[in-house]
Amino acid sequence: MNCLRDLFSVEKPVIGMVHLRPLPGSPLYEGGGLEPIIEQAVKDAKALEEGGVDGIQIENFGDRLFKKNVGPETVAFVTEIVHRIKEEISLPHGLCILMSGKAGLAIAKATGGKWVRVPYYMEVYASYVGLMEGEAAELLRFRRYIDARDVKIFADIHIKHAYPLLQRSIEDAASDAVEMGLADAVIVTGKATGSPTNLEDVKAVKERLAKTQVPVLVGSGVSAENIEKYWPYIDGIIVGTSLKVDGITTNPVDVERVKKFMSKVRRLRGR
Amino acid sequence: MSYLRKRARLVDIFGVEKPIIGMVHLLPLPGSGLYDGNLEPVLDRAIRDARALEEGGVDAIEVENFGDMTYFPGKVEPETVAAMTYIASELSHEVSIPIGICVLTDPYSAFAIAHVVGASFIRATVYTEAIVDVSGIIQGPAHRIQRLKKLLSDDRVKIFADVQIKHSVPLAPRPIEESAKDAFYFLADAVIVSGRFTGEETPVEKVKRVKEYLPEFPILVGSGANPKNIRKLLQYADGAIVGTTFKRDRITTNPVDVKNVKEFMEIVKSIRRKLESRG
In this structure, what CATH number is given to the domain that contains residue B45? Predict the structure, then answer.
């Protein structure tokens, strides 16, 4: 079934990224405490709301190089930041914690988040941080255990920046993530943050999952210029880089770019 | 020992001599054995208790995951950190007195939460030494907390360290005053002395021994303070953390009863007045 219909009241929702600046203690942390980070996150979230996106996803994007498991300080930081964002905007929100779906789910539960993006959900990947093993079985049980069954799992399939050890088609991987892994939605990405998602991948996954009605989101490199080609094959969009000032991922959200993107989306919805 | 950081005085943190810290015992949080599936009632109750404590005149509140029994030994999971951050953050907007954090049993996570929500102190139920409690052996996290403090450049959050805490025995038995000396030497800002169980009186004799051994070091009473014994306890202790006595019918799991808080705080205020008149 299509969980996006329950989470959002629009066709093919657009989820805008709130990429957090480096958190205290992480390698690129700039000092000055949490307040400047919160300030930027709130500004980005407000710009996304003003520009008309349907939801936001908050991610500890600045914390590279990411740890396979995050510590309690990251959980505390992100919970507080989400809490502050939610005081300012009313859009639904989801979490992505690099690299822990469990931490993301815990924060979603505490802050009323509607979904968690899990980059390494099924299978084993050789990634730039080392070997990453999917956490699906643990995460599904954890979700029951903390009574968070209303938090949906958005699972990446063949996630960017990593290679699956199980060499097979992306649609086979997607089918397993849904049938065995019980993912509520799947995300298809390109090779890196901001790099375009391969249209053939999206088509193949959508076709394979058509009968399950599990939604397919496109998760990297979407812009006002290329959204149209993906449109017939997707159920939703997660967009970050192309909504930033000058299209640079680490820059703040540019509300004009958001508006432009959303007006394109509205035209496509109106067809 | 000039490189040892100068410790804060309690009066600088709380603005009064002999501060009283009132407990906000949280209802069971997500994932714990007694959790009932909904976080909002936990927050509502915490806000109600925090407001009652402030109205009753305490000098600070301490937020603790009391309902999560039995507790993770040494390291809690992210669901506890997230839920406590969310609740403590809300509480910090509800009251204007200082807030402290106690995570059972993970003072490292408590420090992270305290840093984030603007809290003034943590209660480290284990700090130096290894203890044996109902969950097994728990090792003191002082070394990890001091490094986190440095990493976060946090000089605000003070560390109140239990020594030989209730519901436990030290793995290596020795006189409590020696445990207290180590806690102080390894950079705690105050020590907490308690009885054997939650709500059980802290023996005056124990407090006295620690105070005489370490006269310059702040000591807080950590269990069983009540209107009958608080005068005696505060002869030696520099303040108290109070929970059970403030609750309706003096039952730990009940909500805070503002009448009990006011009655207790009247006595504390008279003790303070006496101290002042003595100069």
Answer: 3.20.20.70
Minimal Cβ distance to A147: which of B30, B82, B113: B30
CB of B82 less than 8 A from some CB of A: yes
The answer to whether B240 and B20 are in contact (CB under 8 A) is yes
Q: What is the mean pLDDT of residues A190-197?
A: 86
Chain A partners within 8 Å of B39 (Cβ): 109-110
Percent of chain B at pLDDT exceeding 70? 98
Specify the pLDDT at position A234.
98
- The CATH number of residue A96's host domain is 3.20.20.70
Looking at the domain assignment, is residue B168 inside a domain?
A: yes
* Distance, CA of A207 to CA of A222 (rounded, Å): 20
In this complex, do B78 and A103 lie within 8 Å of one another by their Cβ atoms?
yes
Neighbours of B14 (CB within 10 A): 20
Residue A271 lies in a domain: no
Distance CA B225, CA B231 (A): 10
Range of the domain at A37: 3-266
What's the pLDDT at B4? 61
- Select the residue of A33, A70, A83 nearest B86 (Cβ to Cβ): A83
pTM for this entry? 0.94
Q: Calculate how close chain B gets to A215, using CA atoms only, in Å.
A: 27
In a domain, B4, yes or no: no
The answer to the question of residue B2 being in a domain is: no
CB proximity B78 to A under 8 Å: yes
Cis bond upstream, residue A249 (ω within 30): no
Residue A89 pLDDT class (50, 70, 90 cuts): very high
Question: How many domains are contained in chain B?
Answer: 1
Residue ranges in chain B whose pLDDT is less than 70: 1-5, 279
